[in-house]
Amino acid sequence: MSSKSLGLVYDPIYLEHDTGGHVEHAQRLTETLAVLEAGGAAQRLVKLSPRAATAEEVAQVHTHAYIEQLASFCRAGGGRLDPDTVVSPRSFQVALAAAGGLLNALDAVQEGTVTRAFALVRPPGHHALPHKAMGFCLFNNVAVAARYAEQKYGIDRILIVDWDYHHGNGTEAVFYAEPGVLYFSTHSATGYPGTGRVDRAGEGPGEGFNINVPLPDLAGDEDFGYVFDEILVPVAAEYSPGLVLVSAGQDGYRRDPIAGMDLTPRGYGLMAAAVRRIADRFAGGRLVGCLEGGYHLHGLGQCVGAILEQWVGKEERPGDPRRPAKPEVEAAVAAVKRVHRGYWRCLAGD
Ligand SMILES: [Zn+2]
After folding, report:
1. How far is the CA of 330 from the centre of ligand 1 (A)?
2. Is residue 187 annotated as a catalytic residue, yes or no?
3. What is the span of the domain harbouring residue 33?
4. pLDDT greater than 70 at residue 316
5. How far apart, in whole angstroms, are the C-alpha atoms of residue 103 and residue 109?
6. Is residue 240 part of a domain?
7. 188 domain residue, yes or no
8. Residue 112 Cα, ligand 1 centroid: separation in angstroms?
9. φ and ψ at 49, to 5 degrees?
10. Candidate list 17, 127, 166, 340, residue with the active-site label
11. How far apart are CA 100 and CA 141, in angstroms?
12. CATH number of the domain that residue 26 is part of
């Protein structure tokens, strides 16, 4: 097994979170796998199995009361937890396996079994709050992984990049007052769940370590590339993370049925290349992505394929020469710089 390889966490248990006719359903994963197989990427990946996260590991992020309540609700047959979030009898176990999938991915990266890893898991996580499920999410997988990295491996600067169409309000809430996790999110300024304002920059010792980049809908590949170049790349260089985690939601894909951005697989490739360069330069390559949203079945598969393509082999710069960003996106970036110039020297210049 090459040490310069990319791990993929997957297990059929992730199909057992039965959401009926809900847009977040098992076929998201089977279709993604089919696209990866057809594109030849699957054969180049090191297959990693998940384990169940323990209740204690999940309780580093979630309250015991919520964990017990979710377990008993599922045991009793499941149903609707809120207007958006459905669970089946197996969902509690599947959610533990989703969080545990990330933990195994992290262990594999830390132990050097693989250089990078992607966890193709569901249910997704970034809306889940410490005390409740929200927005299709049961446990906040990426937050549980960040806590685990802090506690097991003593990593004291973790960068979480969240490029899902929706703001990861749960992840923001968990780390809002902490400098040890830098949360960077691009998201729709107007979409669900209505959080993620640019002036929400963290509090107390965490001030400056929560970077929200709310964007107008219809932002596309060049726009996200511009945001990454102008904000994420310089800030990450100044922060110098020891680990990079990615909340990889591909619902910014232009044909996604519930979102409104204009990204293509090429745009996801650009973002994936950028986070890889950050991880390679500062974190010894340590990079773990996890699936969040993405509801256009074939498009999700193509976007995940574009991400893995940037993570599997030698570093390359994807795509065509850049076109300029939209004026509204330049304005959004200027607003982020105004809020954060006092916290980051690299943003103070202009
Ligand atoms: Zn989303």
Report:
1. 23
2. no
3. 6-347
4. no
5. 10
6. yes
7. yes
8. 31
9. -95, 150
10. 127
11. 8
12. 3.40.800.20
